[in-house]
Amino acid sequence: MKLEQGHAAIVTGGASGLGHASVVALAEAGFKVAIFDINTDESPAKADAIGGTFHHVDITDEQSVVDGFEAARAAHGQERVTVHCAMTSKRGKTIGWDKEAGRYKKLPTEDYAFGAEGVLVSSFRIASHSALGMANSEPVTADGERGAIILTASVAAQDGQIGQVIYGSCKSGVNGLVLPMARDLMDLGIRVNSIMPGIFATPLMLGMKDRNPQMWDQLNASVPFPKRLGHPEEFASLVLEIVRNGYINGHQFRLDGAIRMPPK
């Protein structure tokens, strides 16, 4: 898709980390960007800074998502790019030791369902609502492209570690959405891809730098090359290339400095 001035984009989780880097990159490329986030403290200012809009959207709530898309389209028109970075999940081993009870306990099914909603179901929710809007709009390229949807998976989708049975399997499910959804939407000219980031220097990870500098150094050293955590801007750079290159479709990209996660 040619990055033309004035096209609209939506980024979930756009107030921080990978999402915010994507917001900035898309805005610099000429897109009118709408930030979907639950963070109401910093999001409005960050949206103002890039000439975009902020919409309080809970990705686990259907009506909240519907309202967010309606508001974003009223402000900017039909989005041609959607980048889904927001998520929520829980941790826990399938079977773990309960110290108080002195016996093993299983991961509550409710915890798994919470993660499935916050990672996998929300990815389908955002992608499908965006695809519907794109489908009912005119193509924007000679190939008949109507838009591009980029989901965020994780290296945990392939290298799920101990305690990541929820996160790893649900992120694997996000990758599993890509090809069948891309084929569902092929006649409509809508592309679907995912990115699997490795360990990135998001605000959550940067907090470790001061709290546990030894662990921070170990994390950096664990990346084969370059020996550092990824920069959010590098994630955003891949987002832009996926948007630009209309032949990229139905693919899952690892972006990880060649890291392969150990069991723990």
Automatic annotation (TrEMBL):
Keywords: Oxidoreductase. Pfam families: adh_short_C2. PROSITE patterns: ADH_SHORT. SUPFAM superfamilies: NAD(P)-binding Rossmann-fold domains. The keyword Cell membrane does not apply. The keyword Oxidoreductase applies. This is 3-hydroxyacyl-CoA dehydrogenase. The lineage of its organism: Bacteria, Pseudomonadati, Pseudomonadota, Alphaproteobacteria, Sphingomonadales.
